[in-house]
Amino acid sequence: MKIIFVIALIYSQLYSQSTFYYKNNKKVFLVQTQNIERSVRVLYYHDSDGNEVGIDKNILVQLKKGVEIKPLLDSYDIVVSEKIDTDTYVVACRDVAVTLDVSNNLYHDDRVLYAHPNRSDR
Q1: pLDDT of amino acid 6
Q2: Three-class DSSP labels, 37-57
Q3: How far apart are CA 91 and CA 51, in angstroms?
Q4: Own/partner pairs for 15-19, CB < 8 Å, 24+ apart?
Q5: How far apart, in Å, are the Cα atoms of 49 and each of 14, 46, 77, 86?
Q6: 85 near 43, Cβ under 8 Å?
Q7: Domain count along the chain
Q8: CA 8 – CA 73 distance, rounded (Å)
Q9: Contact assessment for residue 38 and residue 44, using Cβ atoms and an 8 Å cutoff
Q10: In which domain, by residue range, is 50 found?
Q11: Helix (H) / strand (E) containing 14
Q12: Angle 37-100-108 (CA atoms, 0-180°, nearest 5)?
């Protein structure tokens, strides 16, 4: 009986987190790592497959045709880091702590085709 409780506790910890981003129209859940030696400009997580994922201030965004980037920048307090093509940008948040929230909000914005953190895997 004790083993079932431990398994249930571990399962609830792994799958009850609300830290996630969208990739290919699916949520990718993350668990933040506790390594203090890492850069303060990148937050490190493990995804559900066990891969280490680094999240910085950058988000890859593709706008719908005809949508201007300027109103989006003002709405989310982000800046353009790089223009990849006509409708695709790398935008940067002012603080890495809000990258996932901003990315998820952009993902749900009617002006955006897709948005996800411009992650760096290890």
Answers
A1: 35
A2: CCCCCCEEEEECCCCEEEECC
A3: 24
A4: 19/45, 19/100
A5: 12, 8, 32, 33
A6: no
A7: 1
A8: 43
A9: yes
A10: 2-121
A11: helix 2-15
A12: 170
23: left (phi over 0), alpha (psi -120 to 50) or beta: beta
Which amino acid appears at position 53 of this protein? V
For residue 30, what is the enclosing H or E element? strand 26-32
Sheet of 26-32: strands edge to edge?
Answer: 20-23, 26-32, 43-47, 52-55, 120-121
- What would the DSSP string read from start to end of 94-120? SSGGGHHHHHHHHHH-TTEEEEEE--E
Tell me the two tokens of residue 115. 């948005």
Compute the residue count for the chain: 122
Task: Tell me, rounded to whole angstroms, the distance of Cα 63 from its chain centroid.
Answer: 17
Mean pLDDT in runs of 10 for the chain (122 residues)?
41 53 84 64 87 92 96 94 95 93 96 88 50
Contact (Cβ atoms closer than 8 angstroms) between residue 42 and residue 52: no
